UniProtKB/TrEMBL annotation:
Residues 1-53 are annotated as: Disordered. GO terms for cellular component: membrane. It is found in: Membrane. GO terms for molecular function: oligopeptide transmembrane transporter activity. This is OPT superfamily oligopeptide transporter. Keywords: Membrane, Peptide transport, Protein transport, Transmembrane, Transmembrane helix, Transport. The chain crosses the membrane at residues 82-102, 108-129, 183-203, 239-255, 322-341, 395-416, 481-500, 507-535, 595-613, 659-676, 696-717, 738-760. It is a multi-pass membrane protein. It comes from the Eukaryota. One of its GO terms (biological process) is protein transport. Pfam families: OPT. InterPro entries: Oligpept_transpt, OPT.
Length: 788
């Protein structure tokens, strides 16, 4: 599960005022109109900000000052260098991201890092390859340019994800008797990655072209990319600083990650009292599922930036998530020590199912085999005999707050952003419905993507269209049929392979899942585009599957793979399409590079999953894992699949965990008081629009898994970058904030990649560092060790 996920990995770059600013201001900003410089250019060099006194308050301010609305059509992305760099980084990113998925805390490959590394590699090739003769001119036809750079980054970005299908396949291998078919496993991974691409590509007119669809996470990437392609005299100093920080963090990370790991989780409270279980639950956080890491100090960038660099995270998102984080600590501690749902009879944190015979000194893992039939469906009579399994209190809290966040998101978007999401169904008019009855309507695949002059002019004159896209109307668009073909082939391959894999998911369930994917991408695609934040939909999809396919945990997991994973992939496609748009990469080059990257990434995900599961199976099946490998994500996937397979006995109204289902109603109601206060009671007070209940609710349940010792450091650094620098040192913010963050991400992730194979057991054999005071295995922060 790309928990917090994928969700935090695509976290908001939205500013601290966007949701309350009028649409016309957003449009004005993107057209290069600046209140401070009404007659100035849309792009201002960071150096010119030295004399500015006002803060950079919004994401639109950054666009106004940094991203130029211009294009050079003479630049070509179609070079050997682009494919060489793109494929190379795709291999690197695809392998690294799958490794990270089996870590105690999932860490995501930084697109910012890929951006700067691609620039370094491309520039080096441009300078090192002679331009003599036919071969030289083919390999190195001209200096490395921005469009080559963008294409290579898009290819690597598409590959640098972890396919949820590998999680389902891991579960099937670890708990359900192995892989029935290797070939089917490969094609399931490919089709589940591509189905979301196909669905999202057919919705570009709604979720990509309008100005409001900002995809704010791209703003720092485009800022850096534009800077890197300015004249060398302007970028030499910045690039030098990047490499200094890159090398420094690469060297430093060997200490907290390998030699001196106590630096990743310095807990003053645990060092003061090493025998206090309450301190472990509240202040511990160095081990998987140890504690909430409150007030810990972390010197490990790998974990600080694990869910996205705090230097990128805007102040509004930081503020709302911090409110949820503090509330989540209070809520989780309260649930556990009040012994709600017998919480104290089970571990404080765990994603496993537990037997009712457990007590505070003896945790008994639920024996799933006792309730399984030979075809891996659930025997309900056996459940009655063995007993309904239990969940930990912190995990139930996560399920409740996640479900509430889902419905809060829908209501929040309808209340604050109705005009944006309504475009997805505004095409449903009487004339449109009549046109569906005409045979010619179904010949859309004959389109070549070329536009008439009238169509081009209509786009140029449309005030709602992103001005970056208006500059690209002379490029042939990708016909919708290309995405449609990808979508249909993914459906056909998926259905065939799911039957070969004995997934127990019926064909009609798969079709329902694809229809659900199309509907959900409208709301959550728009939410991600406007705010950069997306609720993790995985538990919700598993709930729906539980009621549709009762007693079938495998069907549950594969249904979720094609719905939740398809949604995540679709949003990533749209985000990268926006990045291509801002950098003026032609639509067809974008389509090609994204498809290549997606296929490479999916194949490497599968290969790495096979290797890791084979070599680390005991750790992946244990509740605590280690500080290097963890099966928390696959355990959680399996736990929810089984739990929802017996949903009426666990989650329906009247059952033990009925609040997990009732939370949907809570989420519907949560945004209403804030909207009423904002709209009718105190319309002049920004605080009511500043608070985002969907984000707050999500973070109320964030601390239920993994290593949590880095969160205090995360918020300190985030406040420094997004409050102090952005408000009081805007010239430093624009010039250095994103570049420093990219260097920190890059040096850290290269170190993790090397260390994984050299000493962490990625190749089959681990080489642990000798134990000493700074390396206390299984108890890095010296908290009282609570084994589950």
């Amino acid at each position: 599960m790309e928990d917090g996920n994928n969700m935090a990995h695509n976290n908001s770059e939205i500013d601290d005022k966007t949701l309350s600013w009028p649409p016309e201001k957003v449009a004005a900003d993107f057209n290069g109109i600046d209140e401070k410089h009404p007659d100035g250019p849309a792009s201002v060099d960071p150096e010119s900000l030295e004399g500015e006194t006002g803060p950079l308050e919004t994401a639109e301010d950054i666009v106004t000052h940094v991203i130029a609305v211009d294009d050079d059509p003479s630049l070509s992305p179609w070079t050997f260098r682009m494919f060489f760099v793109g494929v190379g980084l795709s291999v690197f990113g695809g392998v690294l991201q799958e490794i990270m998925y089996f870590k105690p805390q999932v860490v995501y490959v930084s697109v910012m890092f890929l951006t700067v590394l691609a620039q370094a590699l491309g520039t080096a090739l441009s300078q090192l390859i002679p331009r003599k003769g036919a071969i030289g001119r083919f390999l190195n036809p001209f200096p490395w340019n921005r469009k080559e750079h963008t294409a290579a980054v898009l290819m690597a970005s598409a590959a640098s994800v972890s396919a949820l299908s590998t999680e389902a396949l891991s579960v099937q291998e670890l708990w359900y008797g192995g892989y029935p078919s290797t070939a089917a496993g490969v094609f399931i991974t490919l089709s589940s990655q591509l189905i979301g691409y196909g669905a999202a590509g057919m919705m570009r007119s709604v979720l990509l072209y309008p100005t409001k669809m900002l995809y704010p996470a791209n703003l720092p990437i485009t800022t850096v990319m534009e800077t890197l392609h300015k004249p060398k005299a302007e970028t030499a100093k910045r690039f030098k600083v990047f490499w200094i920080i890159f090398v420094a963090i690469f060297c430093w990370e060997w200490f907290p990650e390998y030699i001196f790991p106590i630096l990743s989780a310095v807990s003053i409270f645990c060092l003061a009292d090493q025998n206090n279980a309450v301190f472990t639950n509240l202040f511990g956080g160095s081990q998987g599922n140890e504690g909430m890491g409150f007030l810990n100090i972390c010197f490990d960038w790998n974990y600080i930036a694990g869910f996205g660099s705090p230097l990128w995270m805007p102040l509004q998102t930081l503020t709302n998530s911090f409110i949820g984080y503090l509330g989540g600590i209070i809520l989780s501690m309260g649930l556990y020590y009040s012994n709600i749902w017998r919480g104290m009879d089970f571990p404080f944190m765990s994603q496993l199912l537990y037997d009712g015979s457990s007590n505070s000194t003896n945790y008994v893992v639920y024996n799933e085999t006792l309730i399984m039939n030979s075809d891996f469906t659930i025997d309900t009579d056996a459940v009655d005999k063995v007993g309904v399994p239990y969940l930990t209190a912190t995990y139930v809290n996560y399920l409740i707050t996640t479900n509430a966040s889902l419905t809060a998101t829908l209501v929040h978007m309808l209340l604050w952003n109705y005009d944006d999401v309504s475009k997805a169904w505004s095409w449903i008019t009487l004339d449109k419905l009549k046109s569906l009855l005409k045979p010619s309507t179904y010949f859309f695949w004959k389109s070549t993507g070329a536009r008439t002059e009238a169509e081009k002019e209509a786009i140029r004159q449309d005030p709602t269209i992103d001005p970056h896209y208006r500059l690209m109307v002379d490029y042939d668009e990708v016909p919708s049929s290309w995405y449609f073909v990808v979508f249909v082939i993914s459906i056909i391959v998926g259905i065939v392979c799911l039957y070969v894999m004995k997934s127990t998911l019926p064909w009609w369930g798969f079709i329902i899942g694809t229809l659900l994917l199309i509907v959900l991408i409208i709301f959550f695609g728009a939410q991600s585009a406007i705010t950069g934040f997306t609720v993790n939909m995985q538990p919700v999809m598993q709930m729906l599957a539980g009621y549709m396919f009762p007693g079938k945990p495998l069907a549950n997991m594969y249904f979720t793979t094609y719905t939740y994973n398809g949604l995540s992939q679709g949003i990533l496609l749209l985000r990268d399409l926006k990045l291509a748009q801002q950098n003026k990469l032609s639509p067809r080059a974008t389509f090609t590079t994204q498809m290549i990257g997606c296929v490479i990434g999916a194949l490497l995900n599968y290969v790495m999953m096979i290797s890791i599961v084979k070599n680390q199976a005991p750790l992946l099946k244990s509740a605590e894992g280690s500080n290097v490998w963890s099966g928390a994500q696959v355990q959680q996937f399996n736990t929810l699949a089984i739990a929802w397979a017996i949903a009426p006995k666990m989650f329906s109204i009247g059952a033990r965990y009925q609040w997990v289902t009732a939370a949907y109603l809570v989420g519907f109601l949560a945004p209403l008081p804030f909207y009423i206060m904002h709209r009718f009671v105190f319309p002049r007070q920004r605080i009511w629009s500043y608070l985002n209940t969907s984000i707050i609710l999500w973070y109320l349940g964030e601390l239920f898994v993994g290593l949590n010792a880095s969160i205090t450091s995360y918020y300190i650094l985030g406040a420094f970058g997004q409050f102090y620098l952005r408000r009081y040192r805007p010239q430093w913010f624009v010039k250095w904030n994103y570049l420093v963050s990219a260097a920190l991400d890059g040096g850290t992730q290269v170190m993790i990649f090397i260390a994984t194979f050299a000493v962490f057991g990625g190749s089959g054999k681990a080489v642990p560092f000798p134990e000493w005071a700074g390396n206390h295995p299984n108890n890095l922060d010296y908290c009282k060790y609570n084994s589950s």
